[in-house]
Amino acid sequence: MEIVFLIVIGLIVFLVLLWQLTLLLTSMLTSPTVYANDKAIEDSLKLAGLKRGESVVDLGCGNAKSLIIAAKKFGAKGIGVEISPYCYFLARWRVFVLGESKNIKIIYGDFTRAEKYLKSADVVYLYLLNATLAKIEKWFFSSIGPKTRVVSLAFVFPNKKPIKSTETFNLRKKTIARLYRK
Ligand SMILES: C[S@@+](CC[C@H](N)C(=O)[O-])C[C@H]1O[C@@H](n2cnc3c(N)ncnc32)[C@H](O)[C@@H]1O
Fold first, then answer.
1. Exposed/middle/buried for 136, CB within 10 Å: 0-12, 13-18, 19+?
2. So where are the chain's domains?
3. What is the three-state SS of 8-77?
4. Whole-number mean pLDDT of the chain?
């Protein structure tokens, strides 16, 4: 009996450590996993003029919060791409539990290999660091469609001028969401 208890405890400790390690590694190698506030996401999607039936892509979707808001509040369909195994499973789980599996698809992997989802997207929502946006800028704007509206929360593309912006609140601070086009 004691041995079973020890195995279960050992397994739990192992899973928690694995979870923390994947979070640490993906944060070190990519953009850190910080989830935006609901209000900031909603204001960003409003800025993008997201409408019922349109599609939204979140590159680095974290826990799929933006896609769930897009589906529940805007009636949109969503695709999220996520490289952190922990966030990927969490996003899938949240989408399932919140009954949005029909409207939201979560893809595991590096978003720089996900251009096929960008061409037909009506809206792309981004919450990535300035350094990440600088790295992907050229590839990203050549991958999106001519009509895709791109909204970036808090962070900016270095060489691209936003066509509109709005002030919002994120992580208890005033911040800006910016709208871009190809
Ligand atoms: C700042 S969080 C944003 C989460 C979510 N989009 C939001 O607004 O709350 C950035 C996310 O991007 C993911 N990420 C970073 N680089 C990535 C890449 N190359 N491919 C896929 N996901 C990536 C990270 O794992 C992290 O979950």
1. middle
2. 1-30, 38-180
3. HHHHHHHHHHHHHHHHHHHHHHCCCCCCCCHHHHHHHHHHCCCCCCCEEEEECCCCCHHHHHHHHHHCCE
4. 93
Q: What is the CATH T-level fold of the domain 38-180, as seen in this structure?
A: Rossmann fold (3.40.50)
Task: Give residue 5 CA to ligand 1 midpoint distance, Å.
Answer: 37
Of the candidates 179, 35, 54, 172, the one whose C-alpha atom is nearest the C-alpha of residue 121 is 54
Report pLDDT digits (tens) over 22-50.
667 766 666 678 999 999 999 999 999 99
pTM for the whole structure: 0.89
- Give Cα 124 to chain centroid, integer Å: 9
For atom 23 of ligand 1, the residue with the nearest CA is 60
For residue 78 and ligand 1, the question of a CB distance below 6 A is answered with no
Whole-number pLDDT of residue 117: 96
Cβ 79 vs Cβ 118: under 8 Å: no
Tell me, using a 6 A CB cutoff, whether residue 83 lines ligand 1. yes
Residue identified by tokens 């896609």 is: 67
Q: How far is the CA of 108 from the centre of ligand 1 (A)?
A: 11
